[in-house]
């Protein structure tokens, strides 16, 4: 958690005041004789029945001070984990049988041998997920940065020199955290934390990283008097309770008991076992120094206010000028918007926006004139009234094809109906559009009556036009050969060659010249291949490529020739060379426009995820603060008036329970909008999502992620996480699986994510991997990320989804922004 500076206090000073405030609250509760024991844990009937049958729990504990130690004088176990579990067992009414172990390896062996039921004080690891069911964290142990008492205070790891070496225990989570967040900071990995402090005492390193409880014990020794806390690493150690994987009921009971565990009781145990007086004393001295500094600053601020008031008039005038400029810019933007709407309304092409129910939501003036409707009369008209041949089934298929991009920007010729009942041929182009949270099908409409009439006339005169090749613009030619094995020769080239390529027909008819001498060198293989195929099969010839004019200009040409048989086995190809340079340029520009639209869709998705993250932070921070204040107010009412009226005390207790439930709902909403674990990296997010899925469904998840995953941009990390959520949702709803495997690995410059289950599977249709909207959504997200998705499934053999996404390039966001601005 980041603390902002308050009236000049540093972040370390504000952080040091938080434990003091908590201790004051606990002291007030003790003075007013509030009950030290928590109320009974709320459990379901099934959980209570299971608890009645399992009243004795076998608890394994690793003997590490101050978490667990054996008191020789009293001949009993003591320590934070021991007292915490005894307090938890008392609230559940169970008996504990303690089993002591020297390290975590022997503890895990005992769990595999079915010698224990649970163990407190564990850290969640990927290997541990195979043998433990972890609870929510019940203890957050800070990792402190220790330095010389006369050295710098409140250090910033990002501003340290390369000579400032930090000693820490590794390899492990702390070493991984330093490498991923501070890659340029030199570190020295040692076997344990005692060795890290020894390296610091011998001046071999500048700083050392140790846990707060360990340093609290060691700071009371004289040999460590020259050391002091100079910062917090920001990566605390989260301790959990691990239980048997084959007993989900025990895990649920433990989670419920942890949520009902009194906060003041947990604080008392931390003060007793895990805090250090020397650390608190130094923080208390720092607090009074900060308070004195605050009073001095307030005195200086009182003097500065007089000076500040004099500058307000000039500041207000500057703001007024800025506001006027903003108003002028806003008016200019509104004028541009009105001009855009005017151009759209007066376009020569009819434009219709259709909703998912096939009703018209918008029609421009050209569409109203083309269809013979009055102004605004087309609104809410169904598409079937304009295209009677299109039924509801056809509309739904059209919507799905356009949504999947199958018919996107393809021209369809259909007969449409005007308002007076007359029909006309129309060229219809469809485009799917997402505007905000809504989806529309945009129809571009053009009357092609004249084009159809011209097409019919063209077909009628096609035979005559072949004989009039000399009058056709373009380079008309004829290829001839005497029989199937004879070489081909050019019999005729029209005089239009001078206008098209700058060469006369006589020059092109010379031996060794011909059309092939005009072809661009890079396109010659395709030219020869297409010509040879037409000659061998005695079929029509078609080729499209680049040619060079006499001036060296590169132009695009389209060659089409039809074959005709003659007497005595003679073959003739009559054809024409068209100049399609302008059309080709338009085609290339259209491809670039489609690429820009895809980038725009990716940008819209990124903005949507950022808005979710903003809303999650607002919900968590604002509502959390107000609920905390409300809970404190109810506690003060309970302290003041609960003893006077038992009914009021019961009401106040009910209100506190409702506030606790509301706290949980706020956290759930914030997590659903933007899981905070995404900030820790895609690998941690996959582990977290797998654990939540396993707890919610009971389906075992096997997770395999790299130790140091590659860095991803926020958009790609969020996209992969959303794809994983959708895939796990499909498994929960449809697969009826027992196990899910998740694998994240890097293959060269590509990051691969595989999701496999052993469920019932289904038949994948060839050429259509997306058989549901969930799979279609995953395909769209993968395409926006520039990756690929492969779906494999067979009935009874489970389903596998393989996703490949290219790793980030630094220039990609800048390119996207420049594209949008242009």
What does this molecule look like?
47% of the residues lie in helices and 22% in strands. The protein has 822 residues and is α+β, with helices and mostly antiparallel strands. Strands 10-9-11-8-12 form a 5-stranded mixed beta sheet, sandwiched between helices. The two termini are 40 Å apart. Pfam families: HATPase_c, HisKA_3, PAS_3, PAS_9, SBP_bac_3. One of its GO terms (cellular component) is cytoplasm.
CATH architecture of the largest domain: 2-Layer Sandwich
Q: What class, by secondary structure content?
A: alpha+beta
- Name the shape in a single word: elongated
What is the quaternary state of this protein? single chain
The Rg value, from CA coordinates, equals 38 Å
Give the % helix. Answer: 40-55%
Set out the fold topology.
Blueprint: H1 11-31, H2 45-53, E1 56-62, E2 69-71, E3 76-78, H3 80-92, E4 95-101, H4 104-112, E5 118-122, E6 132-134, E7 139-141, E8 143-148, E9 166-169, H5 173-181, E10 187-190, H6 193-201, E11 207-211, H7 212-218, E12 227-232, E13 237-244, H8 248-259, H9 263-273, H10 277-345, E14 350-354, E15 360-363, H11 365-371, H12 383-386, H13 392-403, E16 411-417, E17 423-435, E18 438-447, H14 449-460, H15 462-467, E19 475-481, E20 489-493, H16 497-501, H17 505-508, H18 524-537, E21 541-548, E22 554-565, E23 571-579, H19 581-641, H20 646-673, H21 682-697, E24 700-704, H22 714-735, E25 739-747, E26 750-757, H23 773-784, E27 788-793, E28 799-806, H24 811-821
Parallel strand pairs: 1-4, 9-10, 9-11, 24-25
Antiparallel strand pairs: 2-3, 5-13, 6-13, 7-13, 8-11, 8-12, 14-15, 14-18, 16-17, 17-18, 19-20, 19-23, 21-22, 22-23, 25-26, 26-28, 27-28
